[in-house]
């Protein structure tokens, strides 16, 4: 899904076949993923702006589960590690 004036549209949302929804922020051509909402209620949160002209430079920083548990992550993209878990 895109929003904005013609010629300046920006990518804001992607809906997957399984019902998950990814949300994006940023100006046209520099969008980055901020979170993905899964159908069972889990949400993954990301930080990091688009890098080197490609989507996918974001790193996982937090996972919130439907039961209320929250896991916090640190590390570079692809090497994120759980550093803290908060129980519901």
Structure, explained:
It is a single chain. With 88 residues, the chain is an all-beta fold. 0% of the residues lie in helices and 45% in strands. The chain has strands at residues 2-3, 10-11, 13-15, 21-25, 32-37, 43-47, 59-64, 70-74, 81-86. A seven-stranded antiparallel sheet has the order 3-4-5-6-7-8-9, with no helix packed on it. The protein is globular. The model has no long low-confidence stretch (mean pLDDT 90).
Features:
globular, mainly beta, 88 residues
At a glance:
The protein is mostly beta strands.
**Element string (H = helix, E = strand):** EEEEEEEEE
| Cα-to-Cα separation, first versus last residue | 33 Å
User: What can be said about the biggest beta sheet?
Assistant: 7 strands, antiparallel
Instruction: Classify the beta-strand content into a percent band.
Output: over 45%
Shape: globular
The secondary structure category is mainly beta
The helix count comes to 0
Total number of beta strands: 9
Quaternary organisation of the protein chains: single chain
The average pLDDT score comes to 90
Whole-angstrom Rg: 14 Å
Strand order of the largest sheet: 3-4-5-6-7-8-9
Helix proportion range = under 10%
Which residue ranges are poorly predicted, with pLDDT under 50 across at least 5 consecutive positions? Answer: none
How is the secondary structure organized here?
Elements: E1 2-3, E2 10-11, E3 13-15, E4 21-25, E5 32-37, E6 43-47, E7 59-64, E8 70-74, E9 81-86
